[in-house]
């Protein structure tokens, strides 16, 4: 079929043509926006799930919903090697500018507070250290959100930004991707700020997205985080939703999949949204005509798997050291028995490798820091990428 008309989009965070299976999350967020607009108490949100389930896509869709309601919005991606002060300042700068036309004097004051907050971030080290100069063209407001204590500063900043939004008759939504990569101090500060805003009844909502262990990260920081956020686990698509993700875009291009082809696609992809798009793109290019058949899927599968082996799986595997790769392979052997995607006991990993558990701590910690594995509960570990164990076993 015509590759120019191929509708599938297997990009990182790229919205697919059919956002299937996420209606409940979208509808739930609309309720949050409406309740906050009416000054009703509501919790911020946290989305969790493995890589490739569409958390970033959903995060962007939720942001679009807030923009349509006239809210100020900002988005940032957490990084393990960076404090939250600078990216959060940039995100809130955008949100304030979106609200600025409604109360210019108050907006300039809040921008000044934001500038004071941002300038507490320091570039360089030692004698060369200097305050970061954000592109905010108003004077800094000293004595507000600039103590240097991120928890104190963030509570003050969120209060001022949310107050501006309330005066404008709207709200502010801050979206944080890869939230599990925030440092402990930053996690604590965000929880404290959201807690204070909730108690004040101000219209600011934070929506975070991260790996499955993110709730444990938040709970370890502030015990009340279990009640502070509304948690939504984003998982693989049900069969009907996966079929819609394939068939809807195809029909928009006057093409289709037959029922056997859809069944074969679900068997290969497991319903994971990224895989649905990746296989869908290759199958479209390989199929000679519509409707796509199970035979077309069988012909396309090796090419799709080869692309995933290089770009999706292989790029991650290459980041691991030899010791870490050995640990991953042992995990794959155990996951092959327990079920690909399930958690496995770290003690069994050590047993498979014939090593003392303590001697494997550096490898395990390295994999955790690189985001290749996660630990949702003590003594157990799992891959962050679906089908990663299957990929490793196939390399044999």
UniProtKB/TrEMBL annotation:
Region (Disordered): 1-20
InterPro entries assigned: AAA_16, Cyt_c-like_dom, P-loop_NTPase
SUPFAM superfamilies: P-loop containing nucleoside triphosphate hydrolases
Superkingdom classification of source: Bacteria
Zinc-finger among keywords: no
Domain Cytochrome c: 166-317
GO molecular function: electron transfer activity; heme binding; metal ion binding
UniProt keyword annotations, A-Z: Heme, Iron, Metal-binding
Keyword Iron: yes
Pfam families in alphabetical order: AAA_16 (PF13191)
Name this polypeptide is given: AAA ATPase domain-containing protein
Organism field: Jatrophihabitans endophyticus
């Amino acid at each position: 079929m015509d590759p120019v008309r191929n509708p599938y989009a297997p990009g990182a965070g790229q919205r697919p043509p059919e956002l299937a299976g996420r209606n409940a999350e979208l509808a739930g967020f609309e309720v949050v926006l409406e309740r906050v607009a009416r000054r009703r108490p509501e919790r911020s949100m946290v989305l969790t799930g493995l890589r490739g389930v569409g958390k970033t896509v959903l995060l962007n869709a939720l942001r679009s919903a807030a923009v349509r309601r006239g809210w100020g919005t900002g988005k940032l991606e957490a990084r393990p090697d960076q404090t939250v002060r600078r990216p959060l300042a940039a995100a809130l700068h955008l949100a304030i500018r979106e609200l600025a036309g409604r109360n210019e004097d108050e907006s300039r004051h809040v921008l000044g507070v934001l500038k004071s907050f941002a300038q507490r971030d320091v570039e360089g080290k030692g004698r060369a250290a200097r305050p970061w100069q954000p592109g905010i063209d108003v004077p800094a407001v000293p004595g507000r959100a600039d103590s240097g204590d991120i928890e104190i500063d963030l509570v003050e900043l969120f209060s001022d930004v949310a107050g501006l939004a309330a005066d404008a008759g709207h709200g502010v939504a801050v979206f944080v991707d890869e939230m599990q990569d925030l440092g402990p101090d930053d996690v604590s500060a965000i929880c404290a700020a959201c807690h204070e805003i909730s108690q004040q009844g101000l219209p600011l909502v934070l929506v975070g997205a991260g790996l499955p262990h993110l709730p444990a990260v938040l709970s370890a920081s502030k015990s009340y985080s279990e009640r502070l956020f509304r948690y939504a686990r984003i998982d693989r698509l049900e069969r009907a939703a996966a079929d819609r993700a394939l068939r809807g875009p195809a029909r928009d291009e006057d093409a289709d999949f037959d029922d056997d082809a859809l069944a074969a696609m679900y068997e290969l992809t497991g319903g994971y949204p990224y895989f649905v798009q990746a296989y869908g793109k290759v199958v479209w290019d390989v199929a000679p005509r519509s409707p796509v058949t199970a035979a077309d899927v069988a012909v396309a599968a090796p090419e799709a798997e080869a692309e995933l082996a290089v770009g999706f799986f292989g790029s991650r595997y290459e980041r691991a050291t030899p010791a870490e790769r050995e640990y991953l392979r042992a995990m794959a052997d155990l996951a092959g028995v327990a079920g690909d995607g399930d958690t496995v006991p770290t003690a069994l990993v050590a047993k498979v490798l014939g090593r003392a558990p303590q001697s494997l701590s550096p490898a395990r910690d390295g994999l955790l820091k690189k985001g290749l594995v996660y630990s949702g509960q003590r003594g157990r570990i799992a891959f962050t990428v679906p089908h990663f164990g299957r990929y490793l076993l196939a390399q044999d």
